[in-house]
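Protocol step 4 of 6: structure prediction from sequence.
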Amino acid sequence: MQIENIISKFKNRSPVILGSESFSKYAVLLPLLYKNEEIHILFEVRSLQLRRQPGEICFPGGRVDKTDEDEMETAVRETSEELQLDRELIKNVYPLDFMVTPFGTMIYPFVGVITEPENIVPNPAEVGEVFTVPLSYFLENSPDTYEINFKLEPESNFPFDQIAGGEDYNWQTRKMMEHFYYYDDKVIWGLTARILGHFIEVIKQTE
């Protein structure tokens, strides 16, 4: 093999996140709407009948299907299905920063506008209830923030004798920040809070 042959394989290649082909990919929509002449953000409470994270607060969204044109299509499709809305009522959809979680998933968040929120009918198979919070509340109230520290535990037959430092190897420690927003009796945390916090940061930067 010649160097030219090797280089030719990289000329028109678009880089991706290494190992991302094995990640689970999801897309969500942060929905904006007008309520009482004020901008609100819509949230869902996941149905108690769901196997994963029942009763938790989230944004509409779900797993990226191979038949979806792209991640934006996933976010709109899932929002349409969960809120039983015509897709034409979901407008001005734009991407936020995507996330790679420590748990092998990629999250593609988008922000969009629901133009006729009175037509929302939550799908009971997936959504227990929906509620909205004025955008102004999040602009005026910062979340409580806590650290989560990750502990590395190599498996029992890990070949310590093959690495410098052996069992005393200085592993890099990792931590993650968790945000908690409180509104009435609702607790918004986890990935939903991270997406929300990022959205608020972008708004404040562009004011």
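Step 5 (inspection) to follow. The chain is about 20% helix and 35% strand.
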